[in-house]
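Sequence, structure tokens reproduced for reference:
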Amino acid sequence: MLELELEQRTNIKFLVKLGKGGNKIREMLVQVYGDIAVKKTAVYKWLKRFSEGKESVTDEERSGQPATSRTEENIAKICQIERENPRLTVRSIAEQVNIDREIVKKILNEDLDMRKVYAKKVPKELTEEQKQRRVTICQDLLERQDDILGCVITGDETWNYQYDPETKRQTAQWKTANSPRPKKFHRSKSRVKYVADFF
């Protein structure tokens, strides 16, 4: 396809040297190439260039960022960043590497074969040590209830959440297809509270 474009540009250059106008050049290209003739805008772009004295039929190299940022170096950088912290967002990775977010997303999905996976919620599981500790604390409180209640003069109370569980988005991590899915114990912020008493 590129060879065909270069051929048409060469023909445009030849016709410009013969003094032909943009519409006439376009008509002649359509006669020869039919549906695959370059568009009218391209004809005028090259007509202007050749009229200004340019001789090359190839596109000039552009300064600035390369056409693609999906280089081996950037892929390695993103892989290293992800290993250090798999919970980073595409935006924060893009800021660290200084490339477009869409490119980072393509590198993660296509080059590194990774997907953002949310933690799977499972019922709360206590270890034997945690269960035994709860029993000990409850027995201790039962033994001391008379002492505790005998010291109460006046007081005030406030309800607070016992913990602030992570949201689904906060648990998201980048994982490959073969990696195990992370687990998260089911916690409900609104149902678990503790009371703080002030005396």
In short: Helices lie at 2-17, 22-33, 40-51, 72-84, 90-97, 101-111, 128-143, 145-150.
